[in-house]
Every structure is written in C-alpha cells, then in structure tokens.
C-alpha cells in the first residue's frame, strides 16, 4: 500500500473524549470512528488489525479441532424464552420487533441458538465430541460504554460451544480451550493470565478468565508473581492427549491468580510476601463449563451407548476479538504511539522516502516495495510529499514494528536504514540485506 493512496485519517490533536491511551491512539492513528456511544466504524487500518487477530483466533481454534460456522446477529426471542434468559438478561439486551410483531433481539451471546442447532441435527453419542464456534458481532447495551472498543456496545467476539457425552469429556474440552487460548494470545505477542473466575449463579470451579495486565484494566487482580514467568512457547501439543492438556491446565492455574470477584485473602496471604502482586487487568477471554443448564432447559439430548437419552454436556468459551485491539495497544505503546507486535501488525514494514521526487530515492523505494511484496509481505510506503519529520511521526504513531528509511546520503553508498519501532535502534545495510532481514523476522512469527 502507498500512503498517498491509502485512507489513513490521522488526527493531529489529542481527542478530548478518550480517557485511556489505547482509545486515544486508535482515534489518532485513524483506526476507528465513533458512530454512537460504544458503536464504531473500523477504518481501514483498524479493520486490518481486527482481521489479523481474527485470523490467529481461527487458526488456533481449527488446530484444536474446533469447527467454524456462522450464526446470525439477530435471534428470535422465543429461543431465549425457552432457557428463561429472555427475562433474566435485563437492560443489556437490545430488543427489536419486526413488522409482523415478532420479538427479536440482537444476540449478546449464542448459547440458546447453538443448542437449537445441536438439537435439530445431533442424536447420537457417536457424533460427539463436537465443538462449534463463530466470530460474530454481539450487542450488549452496556450502561457505561467507554474506553473505545474495550467496552463497546457492539463488539466482535469469538464464541465457541462444546458438546460432550460425559462430564469428563466436557472437562477435556475445557482444557483444550485453555491450551488453545494460551497459544492464541502468545501468537499475538500478549501475555494473558488465566485467573479463576466467578461462575455466577451456575457456580463451580470450571471457569477461568484470561487477563492482560494493564493499569487501565477494569478488573482488580491478585496473583503470585510466578504466574508471569510461565510461557507456552513453541512446545508440541496433541489436543487429543487428555493428560497433556490437563498438565498444561495444572501448570498454568495451580498458582494463585484471581480477580476481585473470587479473591480470597487467606489463600493470597499464604504466598510469600515478595511474590504477592495486586494489579489491574483487562479481561480478553473466558472459558466456562456449565454442564446441562441449556441442554436440559431446551431438550438437547443424545442417545448413549446403552440406549438411554441424556442431556448433552456443554461449555462456552469466548475471546474478545475487538477488545483485544485495545488491549494490545495498552500493552504495547510509548509516548510516540503504538508499537505493534509482529503477529498482528497491519503492515509488516514501513518504507520512508526522505526525498520524494528524487529519481534515485524513488526507484530504490519502488524496488524495496516490489521485493517485500514478492515475498508475500505487505509494506506501507510513505510516498507523500512531506517533511522527513512528519513521515517519521506518522510511522511512529501507527506503530509498524519495522521501518526502512531511504535517503540520498545513504543511497550514495548503497545503504538504507532499518529501524526497530520497539527499541528505536537503527542499522545501515544494503536494501537487499534489509529485505532479507524483514523476511527472516516474519518467517518465525
Ligand atoms: N462490552 C464489551 N466490549 C468489548 N468486548 C467485550 C465486551 N463484553 C465482553 N467482551 C469480551 O468478550 C469476552 C467474552 O464475553 P463474556 O460474556 O465473558 O464477557 P463479560 O464477562 O460479560 O465481560 P465484562 O466482565 O468485561 O463485561 C470477554 O472476555 C471480553 O473480552
Ligand atoms: Mg467474562
């Protein structure tokens, strides 16, 4: 992409309405535009990041054996009357009536609809285990939408639903989700810590929230500092191996890590004092095993091997895809702007031409652009007639992890400059070496 032909409406001034840095930077970098409280248009660069995140989510879900489908945003109220949640959900549910007077709603989540799909098409235990998921817009009429896309009213979520014959199988599905989520967040360059969460009215231990530590997080969190040393890394995982998945769950959840909802002072104080941490976090996902709550209410049963009919065991598992864009920026920025991790960056590399219109500089930039594109990478070439300072400021604001700078002085010696956005360090090298370095960096992402 050439910046002169792109749509990147960067703001010069700090938007007054933004209280936290991610919201401010998303507006300034031209990623989103608010259309109503908590409802945003995703402008081209914001949309690109959203799609990159969604892509990682899909890849990791499919790797875990989970199957994508797509359910509609609008749902019939009658399904929610069956589960009893039509009345329970309260003001957060956006209720709509069509021209025939039928009650509908904009889905805040999809347990009812997926259970309806299941009961229509699955009869036998032989069709289990089954995990179906989608990435779809949700609507929750939050009392206080704020912090930009972090707490929107319309937001993009991955929600997956597991169906199993036995509780034991359902807990394996839970563990599989925990592992796949660890991989997902790590690929984005994020540390998200599984913390024991509150099961709400359903109760039980089988729910964890994934939290990204950030001062602006809405949840207060308490944890043993050892949890931040854990990484999943590039270890091999066999998602059918129950012991291995259970082992990962134990490794990542045995140390104390809880949000204020489940915090237990006595347990926390049993940790050596120097390891006790109280901080804030952003909830970027949650996994939940709830058994037969919906299958019983909605008659979703399966035939067992010995000819009985039992309600299917279920769980639901969510990732806040649009919230993650904000959370990533909260965790990766400096006073000049965003610093995208390589896994989610909207463009792989920026190209800055210090002397637009100079024949040598222009052709060197074009050659870089072509060479990077030929390697399957997406460069963003700042080909505007702007001062160098303005070009650098834009690149720093939008946060591409790598920048190649081309100027007449360097070119005289066949050199360009490769700069890391994160460290600010620059290195001179030939254009070919710069391309090779960028290719190498992304090959391992
Ligand atoms: N209003 C929202 N705006 C953006 N993302 C959201 C919003 N509500 C929930 N999410 C994201 O969707 C994920 C799964 O939804 P879940 O039902 O667990 O949300 P939740 O627990 O109600 O969230 P919260 O406690 O933040 O209101 C959450 O972990 C979060 O990342
Ligand atoms: Mg939650």
How do you describe this structure in short?
The chain contains 14 helices and 23 strands. The chain has 445 residues and is of the alpha+beta class. The structure holds adenosine-5'-triphosphate and magnesium ion.
Explain what the structure shows.
- By secondary structure, the chain is an alpha+beta fold.
- The protein folds into two domains: 3-337, BirA Bifunctional Protein, domain 2 (2-Layer Sandwich), CATH 3.30.930.10; 347-443, 3-Layer(aba) Sandwich (Rossmann fold), CATH 3.40.50.800.
- Helix content is 33%, strand content 27%.
- It has 14 helices and 23 strands.
- Strands 3, 7, 8, 9, 10, 11, 12, 13 and 16 form a nine-stranded mixed beta sheet that branches.
- Helix 1 packs across helix 10 (321-331), helix 2 crosses helix 10 (321-331) and helix 11 runs parallel beside helix 14 (431-443).
- The protein is globular.
- The two termini are 21 Å apart.
- The site of magnesium ion has 3 residues, from strand 13.
Please compute the radius of gyration using only Cα atoms.
24 Å
State the name of the first-level CATH class of the largest domain.
Answer: Alpha Beta
The CATH topology label of the largest domain is BirA Bifunctional Protein, domain 2
CATH architecture of the largest domain: 2-Layer Sandwich
The bound ligands are: adenosine-5'-triphosphate, magnesium ion
Q: How many separate domains?
A: 2
What's the count of strands? 23
Main structural class: alpha+beta
Could you give a short account of the major beta sheet?
9 strands, mixed
Overall mean confidence score, pLDDT: 96
Shape by Cα distribution: globular
Query: What percent of residues are in strands?
Result: 25-35%
Helical stretch count? 14
- The CATH superfamily of the largest domain is identified as Bira Bifunctional Protein, Domain 2
Low-confidence stretches: none
Distance between the termini: 21 Å
Assign a percent range to the helix content: 25-40%
